[in-house]
Amino acid sequence: MSLALVSVEEYLRTTYKPNCEYLDGVLRQKPLPAWQHGFTQGRVGQVVNKCFPDFAAAGEVTVCILETRFLVPDVIVQRKSELQEPYPIRPVHLVIEILSPKTA
Asked: CA 28 to CA 87: how far, in whole Å?
């Protein structure tokens, strides 16, 4: 089976629903989060933003880990003075992936 490769430029200009991660030209679809997953993701962001005033938490932000690898973690945390637009290309301070039980 052959995989259709996508360029970095095409990946970055396209909105995927659900989100897709990009690994060396191949798209990897992220599973749709269930309610509890989304609640936990939001709560983690609230706690970070309230308890650590020098940092900002955000969910579902595309992060460049290599020139041809982009991941979409559930939550990232970055020092406010180092926020990067439109997506981080330098390391962020914390990446949180929330694991959900598999549903049949």
From this structure: 18
Q: Tell me the mean pLDDT per 10 residues along the chain, length 104.
A: 79 92 94 89 96 96 93 95 88 91 61
**CA nearest to 58, candidates 85, 36, 35, 22:** 85
Q: Superfamily assignment of 8-96 in CATH?
A: tt1808, chain A (3.90.1570.10)
Helices (H), the chain: 8-13, 35-51
The alpha carbon of 90 is separated from its chain's Cα centroid by a whole number of angstroms, namely 14
Q: How far is Cα of residue 104 from the mean position of the Cα atoms in its chain? A: 25
Inter-residue contact 25 to 9 (CB < 8 Å): no
Q: Residue ranges per domain, the chain?
A: 8-96
- Spatial contact of 74 and 41, defined as CB atoms under 8 Å apart: yes
